[in-house]
Specification:
6 strands, 3 helices, three-stranded mixed β-sheet, three-stranded antiparallel β-sheet
Amino acid sequence: MTEETPGFDEKPDVPSGATPDDAEPKAAPQEGAAPAGDASAQIAGLTAQLDQVRKALEERTADLQRLQAEFQNYRRRVERDRITVKEIAIANLLTELLPVLDDIGRAREHGELLGGFKSVAESLETVAAKMGLQQFGKEGEPFDPTIHEALMHSYAPDVTETTCVAILQPGYRIGERTIRPARVAVAEPQPGAQTVKAEDGSEAGDDKDNGPEEG
C-alpha cells in the first residue's frame, strides 16, 4: 500500500459558479505600446522641431555670412586707410624737402654743385625718387592750370596756344598726387596774329586782287 504525498494532487480552490478559465492567470499587458494616433502625433512634433532647427541654422548661417562680409570690408577699409596715411606722411616729409631740392637745382644751374656737396645732393635726390617723388615741368609744353601755376604772362607771335615758355620752379608729384604745381612763365598767341578765314575757305585780309589784270 503506497502512501500519497500530500499537496501534489491538490487543485486550487475555485469559487462556486466560476469556470476553470477564471482560475488561470491572465498575461499582463505589454508596457510601451502606444496607440497609432500617439505615434503620428510624435512624428509630427519631431518634424516641427526639425523645421525649427533648420530655420534657426539658416538664420545663423546668414548671420555668419553677413559678419564675414563686414569683416572683409573692414579689412579693406583699414588697409586703404593705412596706405592713405602712409602716402600723406611721405608727402608731408617730401614737401618739407622741396626748398632744399630747389636750392640743389639752382646750384646745379650755376655750376656750384661740386665736391662733397654734389655727392650729398645726389644722394638726397635719389632717396626722394625712391620714395616716389617725381619732378615735372618743361619749357614748350602747353599750359595746364591743374599742374601749372602761372607767375608771369606775355604774348608771343610764335605760339598757337598758351604755352609754358620758362620754368621758374619745377613741379613735384607722388604718383597721381601733385604736391606742388610747376611755377612757370606763360605766353599767349599775339592778339590779331591768327588768320581769319572766310566762309568759302579763302583767307581774309589779303591785299592782292586775284582778278584779271587790266590791259
